[in-house]
Design a protein that fits this description.
The protein is an all-alpha fold. The protein contains 14 helices and two strands. The termini are far apart. Bound molecules: heme C (2 copies).
Length: 373
């Protein structure tokens, strides 16, 4: 049986009514909170096309060996399939690579939410940090100016000469094109099992308290008690990378830290209550983006749901909303079916992926320091 979008709404309302009548037995989680449809942002085609080439161009990293797409791979929902990301030589990653699908619609970025301004800033950070692409912006600008294809594309996009400022605008314009489409949830074609999962999600399981709105996130920090990934502390290169990050972010005694402090890295709350908090992730496109959590500690959606069924992990700062749920095996499978119904078409066509080689086989510009293009 197929359900329409309208019927989804009716089920949600029915579920909310059931909740109010059972308000003494159950916390009133989910009351008034909705999921809803995604609205795609407007896109400037010439700027996005330029951003696409830049996203797939390895010359944007210091050693010209990795591009944004080396970690944000289209066939994996713009993630890398690893628990913890790789990093520039000399560093190693300490976080799971998040999806970039719908990232243009977020209110803050990175698992700890340390950037709350815009994607221009996130792009700058991704390019320049030594654990990411370790790129010097001046060198990047000169490399890009050497390539006649870029000179033409920057002109066509209305940016004039290639500059690092416009690189940081063009990549976010491309990110604006990475928007979910045609998930069974959006097209009203969810299975009966997924429909029952949605009722649990918005009702008895209480997921909607934090995972709400079209992207299924409240864009806020919460502590779920997700287990630490021991590789960050047992692998000397990862540990050194995290220690350098914590030192740069002003954490006292950064050499003694043995856990990912999450949101505390930037809000430094004196009572320590934000240690181990992470920004609620989107639940869209999850079928492409395993493993899960900020550190990739869960391999499957069933493992994540089983974790919540236990009431989350063990942490003094754990969010009081997380309590053992008492879901049966069948109910846990229904929740998983609903989560799977939030994934749409893969964004792997040439609309989203730079098609073919990026040729670096162009004649060198004579006296390039004197040239203005
Ligand atoms: C070496 C792997 C790697 C490369 C290369 C890389 N990223 Fe990322 N990206 C990550 C990881 C890991 C995170 C999460 C970091 C964190 O939470 O601290 C991330 C986070 C992001 C986010 C935030 C997403 C969100 O919802 O919070 C955006 C946007 C992003 N990257 C864009 C880019 C762009 C654009 C490039 C190229 C300029 C790029 N990344 C290159 C691994 C990478
Ligand atoms: C108290 C707020 C809160 C509630 C309630 C909550 N979550 Fe989460 N959820 C989070 C946060 C925060 C994370 C990220 C934790 C991390 O990265 O360590 C997360 C992560 C996840 C992930 C992993 C996504 C990914 O890409 O890694 C899934 C799946 C998920 N939650 C599903 C659910 C389901 C299903 C429920 C209901 C049973 C639920 N959540 C209830 C806050 C919440």
């Amino acid at each position: 049986m197929r359900y329409s979008r309208f019927q989804n709404t009716v089920t949600r309302l029915a579920c909310a009514t059931a909740l109010t009548s059972a308000v003494i037995a159950m916390p009133a989680v989910g009351w008034g909170q909705e999921i809803g449809q995604i609205e795609a942002p407007e896109v400037n085609a010439a700027k996005a096309e330029l951003g696409k080439r830049l996203f797939f161009d390895k010359r944007l990293s210091g050693d010209a060996a990795i591009s944004c797409a080396s970690c944000h791979q289209p066939e994996n929902g713009f993630t890398d399939g690893l628990p913890l990301a790789k990093a520039y030589p000399g560093s190693d990653g300490f976080r799971n690579t998040p999806t970039l699908i719908n990232t243009a619609l977020r209110k803050n970025w990175f698992h700890d939410g340390r950037i709350g301004t815009n994607l221009n800033d996130v792009t700058r950070e991704s390019l320049t940090e030594d654990y990411s692409m370790n790129m010097d912006m001046r060198l990047m600008q000169e490399r890009v100016k050497q390539d006649p294809v870029y000179v033409e594309m920057f002109e066509a996009a209305g940016y004039g000469e290639p500059s690092n400022g416009s690189i940081r605008k063009a990549i976010p314009e491309y990110l604006n094109t990475l928007i979910s489409r045609n998930s069974p949830y959006d097209t009203g074609t969810m299975s009966d099992e997924a429909m029952r999962g949605q009722e649990l999600f918005t009702g008895k399981a209480g997921c909607i308290s934090c995972h709400n709105g079209p992207l299924l996130t409240d864009d806020a920090l919460h502590n779920t008690g997700a287990p630490e990934n021991p590789d960050i502390w047992s692998d000397p290169v990862r540990h050194a990378t995290y220690a350098a990050f914590a030192s740069f972010m002003g954490i006292e005694n950064y050499m003694n830290v043995r856990r990912d402090v999450g949101g505390y890295i930037w809000d430094h709350k004196a009572d320590g209550s934000t240690k181990g908090t992470f920004i609620t992730p989107t639940l869209r496109e999850l079928t492409y983006t395993a493993p899960y959590m900020h550190n990739g500690m869960f391999d499957s959606l069933f493992e994540v749901v089983a974790f919540y069924n236990e009431g989350g992990g063990d942490d003094p700062n754990k969010d009081p909303l997380l309590k053992p749920l008492g879901l049966s095996f069948v109910e846990q499978k229904e929740l998983v079916a609903f989560l799977e119904a939030l994934s749409g078409d893969p964004l792997t066509s040439p609309d989203f992926v730079w098609d073919g080689e990026i040729s670096t086989n162009y004649p060198a510009i004579e006296n390039w320091r004197e040239q203005t293009n």
